[in-house]
Amino acid sequence: MTGRRLLWYRANDRLGLLWLVSDGCPMRGDAIRQAFTRARRGAAMPGIRFHDLRRTGQTLAAATGATTKDLMRRLGHASPAAANRYLHTVDGRDAEIASALSDLAAHGNATLLPKSIVVKH
User: Which of 19, 56, 83, 89 is buried deepest, with most CB atoms within 10 A?
Assistant: First the structure.
C-alpha cells in the first residue's frame, strides 16, 4: 500500500508521507523519537543520539569502498568537507591501508590491488 501511495503522490507532484502507522495514518510527530528512546534504553546505550546513526551509516558506507562522491550523495551534501564531517576512524583501518600500500609497492601495479579494503575484527 505504502509503495503505491508514494508512486501516486510522486506522479501527481505532491508530497507523500513516508512514515505511516499500520492503519495508513500519519505518525505522530514524536513517534520515531519515542521508539528510538525505547530501543536505546533496551540496548543499554543511554549516551547514543539518533544523529549518531547517520555518522555510523556514513562510516560503514565508506568502509565498503564508497567514494567521497558516493558519500556526498547518500547524505545530500554539496561539499566533501560536509561529507567528511560524518566519518569516524575505524580501528585497524590504518594497518589494512599500510598492507595495501605495501602490496602496491611490491607489485608495482595498482590493478593487482583489491578494489576496497575490508577491516576484519
Answer: 83
> Are residues 69 and 25 part of one domain?
no
Does residue 60 form part of some domain? Answer: yes
Do 72 and 82 touch, CB atoms closer than 8 A? yes
Q: Rounded to an integer, what distance in angstroms lies between the CA atom of residue 119 and that of residue 21?
A: 38
Q: Give tens-digit pLDDT for 40-84.
A: 999 999 899 988 888 888 888 888 888 888 888 888 888 988 888
- Report how far apart the first and last C-alpha atoms of the chain are (Å, whole number): 41
State pLDDT tens for residues 1-45: 455 655 665 665 555 566 677 777 777 778 888 989 999 999 999
* pTM across the whole model: 0.53
118 within some domain:
no
DSSP state of 115: S
- Are the CB atoms for 75 and 86 separated by under 8 Å? yes
Same domain, 107 and 90: yes
Listed residue (96, 103, 90, 102) closest to 117, CA to CA: 96
